[in-house]
Amino acid sequence: MNVQVIPGTAGTREWPQTDRSEAPKAIEHPQGRFRALTAKNLDTITDYGNVNGDDLFAMRVVSTVLPFRTNRYVIEHLIDWDRVPDDPIYQLVFPQKGMLADEDFRRVADLMVREAPRPEIERAVFDIRAGLNPHPAGQREFNIPSEDDEVFEGLQHKYRETVLFFPSQGQTCHAYCTFCFRWAQFVGDKELKISSKDAEGLHRYLAAHPNVSDLLMTGGDPMIMKTRVMEGYLRPFTDDPALEHVQNIRIGTKALTFWPHRFVHDEDADDMLRLLEAVVRSGRHVAIMAHFNHWQELRTNVVREAIRRIRDTGAVIRGQAPLLAHINNDPDVWARLWREQVRLGIIPYYMFVERDTGAKQYFEVPLVRCWEVFRQAVQQVSGLARTVRGPSMSATPGKVEVLGVQEVAGEKVFVLRFLQGRDPDWVGRPFFAKFDPQATWLDGLEPAFGEDAFFFEDGLRAMTG
């Protein structure tokens, strides 16, 4: 086993490198380098399960509108093909007919059946995507900052303490989630994409905003980038005094599910771990914001090894996911997920409500059901798993938590509160909405007790114009 020292980090401990020639037999070893499977490879799935021609055609129709991408690790190690189409990971990555509205599905299917000219299909797809709310919660309209006539593309600053950055080299993933609220990043439309490769611009913006304590690298998936690219974004935090106020570095990733070899067998896996360790040793809190939707994603040996290696750098792994029909609309699934995360050293962080975008109609669950699932799941776990918060809606005004359903002054109401807000004064304030058993999002709720508006609406209008 070889050891190497991180360049330029005197006193840093030596980091053991994986001997890839003798990978442990108990760990699933990749057959060569990562290779994505896209809509062109849909026939591949017929080798694994009982997927008929109608299902394949439906997948081709839906993947013409919404992005599709997976890989052999997902197909061979995560999906239980005896349970298809009900297997949760199958639903997580493979397009299903119900992910488009019936009218939209028929429109594209008819064009494909009659072999319409490509420009005609592209026009229909463009119209359908425009109706799927490609940038929910004001991501493009309200979150991208500008100063002195400079627009900071690829950066969002919605909350005072936290800046989101979308590195252009990380605006894809090892596989795509069918529910993803950032699907618009992956469809090849430059008008819809938020991204930047201006590392110096990011650092300059952060240096000019001392109130910012947290940087969230997001995407896509930043962990699809090579370490040498990631280093350009992260290394300055180890030695630039102008960035000392940025104490928390978060990296949003699905790599632990879709390609855990990124941290174990990839050529620069050890380099990535050494980079994370260097940032930790600079005094920063490094948090890997891992998206786990189901306990099934944690059952392979390679993901457990990847988790162990990341934790050995000093980085913390936090688990988060939305509640989704067809995948995890079950309190027992969530309880098992949280227990397994705690056992592996992952901190349960958020249960989200599915956002109002893309294939929402297929995945959305009424808010009252979200609350019931959360409550019944959290009752089954110990205090170590009750770090989780939710169910939370990442809406235009901020993150709004559904605390429960109560009868107050003779009226049945939702009890809500802000976990984060565009105005920090909103945070922690409870408020009430009329109970609606069908409501699935904040915009579908009305104020309780005869009020004309929620307390934050005037302030929100003033901010967003």
In short:
Helix content is 29%, strand content 18%.
Tell me the layout of helices and strands.
Layout lengths: L2 E2 L10 E2 L19 E2 L15 H13 L4 E2 H7 L9 H6 L8 H12 L4 H13 L15 E2 L2 E2 L3 E5 L2 E4 L33 H9 L6 E4 L9 H8 L13 E6 L1 H4 L10 H13 L3 E7 L9 H12 L3 E8 L7 H14 L2 E7 L6 H4 L3 H12 L10 E6 L3 E11 L2 E11 L8 E5 L22 H8 L1
Parallel strand pairs: 8-9, 9-10, 10-11, 11-12, 12-13, 13-14
Antiparallel strand pairs: 1-2, 3-4, 5-6, 7-8, 14-15, 15-16, 16-17
Strand adjacency order, main sheet: 7-8-9-10-11-12-13-14-15-16-17
CATH architecture of the largest domain: Alpha-Beta Barrel
User: What is the name of the CATH topology of the largest domain?
Assistant: TIM Barrel
Helix content: 25-40%
Radius of gyration from CA coordinates: 22 Å
Major sheet: 11 strands, mixed
Alpha plus pi helix count: 14
Query: Shape, please?
Result: globular
Estimate what percentage of residues fall within beta strands.
Answer: 15-25%
What is the tally of beta strands? 17
Give average pLDDT, whole number: 90
